[in-house]
Amino acid sequence: MDYTGSQSEKVIEAGELGRSHIGQTISFQPNEFTVVFGKLAGIARTEAMVYVSLAGVGNGTHMKDEYDLSATHEVYVPVDVITNAESTIKDLFGKVQENLRGAGHKGGEDRL
User: Fold this and answer.
1) Which of 17, 54, 88, 95 has its CA 20 to 30 A from that of 61?
2) How far is CA 25 from CA 32, 71, 74, 79, 95, in A?
């Protein structure tokens, strides 16, 4: 299995997880056979390892609620909608400006 997240997620390294991620739903592949989806309840870290605790998945027959991940392990978190929207708006504004500049030059040529 090779999990690559969904369109509404972005990949970060487990070492980048921080307090702002608590409460978010994350996903990751702890081994080659399993994909985990859960709400991040807690994070502990050492220099090389990140220990994550998930809310609401413990006590199941085959489900763990704690995972040990290397600091470089890929973890998928929700895309930051505000930052994403801001960059999209800037890109669109830039394209509108280019189009207006281009239309202004073309409009002048048409009048001749």
Assistant:
1) 17
2) 21, 19, 14, 11, 34
29 φ, ψ (degrees, to nearest 5) = -115, 100
Task: Name, in order, each residue with C-beta under 8 angstroms of 72's C-beta and a sequence gap of 6 or more.
Answer: 13, 14, 15
The model scores a pTM over 0.70: no
Query: pLDDT tens digit string along 100-109?
Result: 887 665 555 5
Any idea where the domains of the chain sit in the sequence? 1-79, 80-112
CA 39 – CA 21 distance, rounded (Å)? 9
Average pLDDT value for residue range 93-100: 82
3-class secondary structure, 100: helix
CATH number for the region 1-79 comes to 2.30.30
Look at residue 67 and tell me whether its pLDDT is greater than 80.
yes
